[in-house]
Design brief:
The protein is α+β, with helices and mostly antiparallel strands. It is 36% helix and 19% strand. The two termini are 51 Å apart.
Length: 557
């Protein structure tokens, strides 16, 4: 334990916090910051930290970055120390490591994992052999060729029948004036017989062509049924193995109570732990502390290394614990500890005024302060919508037309009736409203003007973070214009074409965007006194008077 429990070398006394860190939104305690600095110094000492620490194979294709965590602890004698961890699973034992071990090591000798996984390997190999069988692939190729040939033959036959049908129609059109009524009726009967006969022949031809495919289809179906049986057995065993693994992930809390991952996720859709549950830094750190009679005092998690391609991760930046994997676990593991209050339950708008900057008989606009909700939250009712409904109780239907992030300040437009709301909202939806934001960025943007096109979607494992996803993300486009570069910072205009959640924040911070986070962005950059992003100007057509409306509020920074 001596190599894993690290001691502080403090130059000045730092008071111990009275409560443990709330892991999903926090400012790291000075003791945790000191522990992080010691860990960073250790990582900085490696020539190639990622591979030297065996955090991935030599053919690792992803950016070399990792989430690390520290846990400040107090031993039985009251002496402080700290533990280190990284997120993820590394195959094999962590021998002579300065980091805490896995909560459960499925790779240990005589583990049920090896026995069951070896059977999965057997079935994987059988499936691969069947899928690559020469005769099977040959039959599939022949069937594809035959289907194309049949399709062409059938097309030509249908074309021939259509031509004959057209000829019969032309004959009837010419004969209607030259034949007697009885002779014309005989012609109609003849053509009807020929038409029915043609349909019969076409149907029989289809049967004939399908019969040519039947032997190949049967051989392929028999082969694919065998593949399906192996895949079904593989899936059943894989699910069984995954359930067994999560049963072995036993998490302690400060009361000494242990619960496994399956139990902790049984009431949370989809009622099964996500892949990687239990392997994040925070659960590892707490588990080791409890097992070794160490009292948790404070914690912090930070990113070290290159950013991911999809998620924005800044080197050295502190991040909250992930919600999808860690929230149910940490809710259990922190029981028995006094934990900081959840900051997300505190109303940030207390004491802030909401100024009305435009009003007529139909619409109104406010200058929303930073850290002020646009609409009611899950636990906080106070918002622009709430206050304006109290101020204008006679207004009917929805009031708010669009939204701003809680941390963004600036112009927000509302309506006084449902009918006007619908008309104005249509302008936002068809993107005819012109929006201009002012932002102050950390770093110097090279181009004077430009266009950012990075599709976005929510990070399902870590809401409300957004991530870049060109496959499943929604189109997100932004124009920008540099106003000033000064002291390593850049002031810009943003002209959002689309209106995705956190669009400007991600486009500013992402390496494929401007790679310069908005100052004060606690999600994609570094927290300051505020988020330096302001909705400065809106231009739209008044939904009733049909006259242009321009609303302008200068940025407060």
């Amino acid at each position: 334990m001596n190599s894993i429990l690290h001691r502080f070398d403090l130059k000045e006394t730092i008071d111990v916090p009275s409560k443990f860190t709330f892991p999903f939104l926090y400012e790291p305690h000075p003791l945790a910051v000191e522990a992080v600095q010691q860990l960073k110094t250790y990582l900085d000492g490696f020539k190639n930290w990622f591979y030297d620490l065996n955090l991935g194979p030599k053919n690792y294709q992803h950016p070399l970055g990792k989430m690390f965590g520290v846990l400040v602890v107090e031993d039985s004698s009251g002496k402080l120390g700290h533990l280190w961890a990284y997120s993820g699973v590394i195959t094999g034992e962590q021998k002579d490591s300065l980091f805490v071990p896995l909560v459960f090591n499925m790779f240990s000798e005589n583990s049920n994992y090896f026995k069951e996984n070896s059977q999965l390997d057997v079935w994987n190999k059988k499936i691969t052999i069947l899928e690559k069988d020469v005769l099977y692939l040959k039959n599939k190729k022949q069937l594809q060729k035959l289907e194309k040939e049949n399709e062409l033959l059938l097309y030509n036959q249908r074309k021939k029948h259509s031509q004959l049908k057209a000829e019969r129609k032309k004959q009837r059109e010419e004969a209607v004036h030259s034949l007697t009524e009885s002779a014309y009726q005989k012609l109609l009967d003849l053509h009807q017989t020929k038409g029915m006969h043609a349909k019969f022949l076409l149907k029989e031809y289809q049967v004939f062509l399908n019969a040519k495919k039947a032997p190949l289809e049967k051989a392929i179906a028999i082969h694919e049924e065998e593949i399906k049986e192996y895949k079904t057995a593989r899936k059943e065993l894989s699910n069984k193995l995954q359930s067994w693994i999560f049963e072995q992930y036993q998490f302690l809390n400060a009361k000494g109570v242990s619960k496994n991952a399956l139990h902790l996720f049984k009431n949370i859709p989809p009622y099964f732990p996500p892949s990687g549950t239990g392997d994040c830094a925070a659960p590892k750190l707490l588990q080791y502390a409890y097992r070794n009679n160490l009292k948790p005092v404070a914690m912090a998690e930070f990113w070290y290394g290159a950013s991911l391609k999809s998620q924005i991760r800044k080197h050295g930046h502190y991040y909250p614990s992930c919600r999808s994997k860690c929230e149910p676990i940490l809710e259990h593991m922190l029981q028995g500890l006094e934990v900081d209050d959840n900051p997300m339950l505190i109303n940030p708008a207390v004491g802030k005024e909401l100024s009305l900057i435009y009003e007529d008989d139909y619409i109104m606009a406010v200058n929303k302060p930073e850290e002020f909700l646009s609409v009611r939250g899950k636990t906080i009712e106070d918002s622009v919508e709430y206050r304006m409904k109290k101020r204008f109780p006679q207004a009917t239907g929805p009031l708010i037309v669009h939204r701003l992030d809680m941390s963004t300040s600036g112009i927000l437009v509302l309506t006084k009736s449902l009918e006007v709301h619908k008309k104005l909202q249509e302008q936002f939806e068809n993107r005819s409203v012109k929006k201009r934001y002012v932002a102050l960025l950390e770093g110097e943007v090279k181009e004077d003007t430009g266009f950012i096109d990075l599709a976005l979607r929510v990070d399902l494992d870590n809401r409300p973070f957004q991530m870049v996803d060109p496959v499943y993300g929604k189109s997100a486009r932004t124009k920008f214009e540099v106003l000033e570069r000064k002291d390593g910072k850049t002031r810009v205009y943003f002209y959002p074409i689309t209106g995705r959640t956190h669009q400007l924040r991600v486009h500013a911070s992402h390496p494929l965007g401007l790679n310069c986070p908005i100052i004060g962005d606690d999600l994609y950059g570094f927290k300051k006194d505020r988020l330096y992003l302001h909705a400065e100007q809106l231009e739209f057509i008044h939904p009733v008077t049909l006259k242009p409306v321009v609303i302008h509020v200068p940025a407060p920074f």
